[in-house]
From TrEMBL:
This is Uncharacterized protein. One of its GO terms (molecular function) is acyltransferase activity, transferring groups other than amino-acyl groups. It comes from Xylaria multiplex. The keyword Transferase applies. The keyword Transferase applies. PANTHER family: FATTY ALCOHOL:CAFFEOYL-COA ACYLTRANSFERASE (PTHR31642:SF310), TRICHOTHECENE 3-O-ACETYLTRANSFERASE (PTHR31642). Pfam families: Transferase. Keywords: Transferase.
Length: 500
């Protein structure tokens, strides 16, 4: 008798997952190898430990698919995850040792960002996903070996994984890597219960607090800021939808981009302490809560980047018009504020966007203290309440077609800046085991591939803090803007150019 065919389990994604931009977030983790360790041994450990991690964290085995409208839900554009025991990602083996520099040479140079060519380091399958065919794997991995080291590319599909859940996935893999090497190395234990992978938790928590879907009139008349909190723009009318191009990160579908350049800056622990003290001094703004260290960093980056952008394009009305407003959009993990019913390790997506606005002239003026900017950032974050999150969730749940979602970030227009900060995620403290890796398996660097978003927008990513203090900031700007930023005396007080 032939064995029964195992059908995948199916999980409807919730509205927060459905409104996420549909693309892969790609990161490269670098490790030094111990002398004499064979690439094949490391590859076998990576594959075996990923299998073990998938047993504890089943989202690793999930793929995302489109769902056709049906009698239960007639709305198009919905997604579902399917999980199958035979779908554990295969760690793609890629030996670059014959053509790449030695690992230690790259480390001595600060791991130049221009070396991190995604065409070589990131598996091409990540760009060929088909939601109507084989689906998009939650996790795609490629192990790139060079002499003395490993550049491990991890691609996570954004509809399933955000910053928090992605960091937990990596920590689980690191834990399993240690187990397979019999190396406990004193690392903190990590246990994630099965209910953390339940996408129904968010809508159940929302409904449990008495929330209801907005009426058609409420949906149509919802204010822009409620959509902005979701990281979205209000839906367009059917007529306007037909006249616009869909959101895409495919360079072939974008307008010819400007000449871009990327710089990695380093902020030392001493400089960050100085910045935090300067930016959190009291002001007369009336803000009750003092700014956080992250607010201080966002204020410095926002002010100095916008100053460079305005100086590079002084006639642009976005900066020069009377009353021109600068907008700062920063990511906010909503787990704690949304509901106490959610587990701390909820493995879906629950990202909101905090928007701060200041007049461009005031933001970049030497007469405006950095503390004033930091307090303005904190004031904007503090306006985000549970009721606001729930109201925005209701808009997401009432979307008539998730595939028509619009986002304000993939553009070079206007005076908007979108920053992502991983300061609260201690990913550089993960240990992948000391049998094959140097340093007990600590990650030496965590970086995105080079020039990923250059065709569609500027980019600012604050990378995770290093165990000894300090952190890196990746910035992609127009070439003339970057030259001005690197010469900015205020910025240079706190951030040093590490590499390009």
């Amino acid at each position: 008798m032939p064995s029964a065919i195992v059908q995948p389990q199916r999980f409807a994604l919730n509205p927060m997952d459905n409104v996420m931009p549909r693309f892969y977030a790609n990161f490269i983790l670098t490790f030094g190898l111990k002398p004499g360790v064979e690439f094949s041994e490391v590859h076998s450990l990576l594959q075996a430990s990923l299998e073990t991690a998938a047993n504890e964290l089943p989202i690793i085995r999930r793929r995302v698919f489109s769902v056709a409208p049906d009698d239960t839900d007639p709305n198009p554009g919905r997604l579902e995850a399917r999980e199958h025991p035979g779908w554990t990602p295969q760690v793609i083996y890629n030996d670059l040792s014959a053509s790449w520099p030695d690992y230690d040479d790259l480390m001595d140079e600060g791991l130049p960002q221009d070396t991190l060519d995604g065409a070589q380091l990131v598996p091409s399958v990540h760009a060929k996903w088909d939601l109507d065919g084989e689906g998009a794997s939650a996790c795609i991995v490629q192990a790139n070996f060079i002499e003395g080291g490993l550049l491990l590319s991890v691609c996570l599909f954004h509809s399933l994984v955000d910053g928090m859940s992605g960091s937990l996935l990596l920590k689980m893999w690191a834990k399993c890597m240690r187990q397979h090497q019999n190396d406990d190395s004193g690392a903190a234990s990590l246990a994630i219960t099965p209910d953390c992978c339940n996408y129904d938790l968010v809508p159940e928590a929302w409904a449990a607090e008495g929330n209801k879907l907005p009426s058609p009139e409420e949906f149509a008349n919802s204010d822009d800021d409620a959509w902005r909190l979701l990281g979205m723009l209000p839906p367009l009318s059917p007529e306007k939808l037909r006249a616009r191009a869909a959101f895409s990160l495919d360079p072939s579908k974008a307008q010819p981009p400007p000449e871009m350049t990327t710089t990695i800056f380093y902020v030392s622990a001493t400089a960050f302490t100085k910045l935090t003290a300067l930016a959190t001094t009291p002001t007369d703004s009336g803000v009750s809560a003092p700014p956080t260290a992250n607010d201080a960093l966002m204020a410095l980056l926002w002010r100095c980047i916008m100053r460079a952008r305005a100086a590079a394009d002084p006639a642009n009305p976005a900066y020069a018009a009377r009353g021109a407003l600068a907008e700062l959009d920063t990511t906010l993990d909503g787990r704690l504020l949304f509901s106490e019913r959610l587990p701390w390790a909820y493995m879906g997506t629950l990202i909101f966007i905090a928007t701060t606005r200041m007049a461009v002239t005031s933001l970049i003026s030497p007469a405006t203290s950095l503390a004033t900017v930091a307090h303005t950032v904190r004031s904007a974050v503090d306006t985000i309440t549970r009721s606001r999150l729930h109201a925005s969730y209701g808009l997401a749940a009432a979307m008539p077609d998730f595939s028509e979602a619009r986002y304000p970030f993939a553009t070079f227009e206007g005076a908007e800046a979108c920053f992502t900060s991983f300061l609260g995620l201690p990913l550089m403290e993960m240990r992948f085991g000391g049998k094959v890796f140097r340093n007990g398996g600590l990650v030496d660097h965590l970086r995105p591939p080079r020039r990923e978003f250059d065709a569609v927008c500027r980019r600012c990513v604050v990378l995770p803090p290093r165990p000894a203090g300090g952190f890196e900031v990746l910035l992609s700007l127009k070439r003339e803007e970057m030259a001005l930023l690197e010469a900015d005396k205020e910025f240079a007080q706190f951030a040093q150019v590490l590499c390009h």
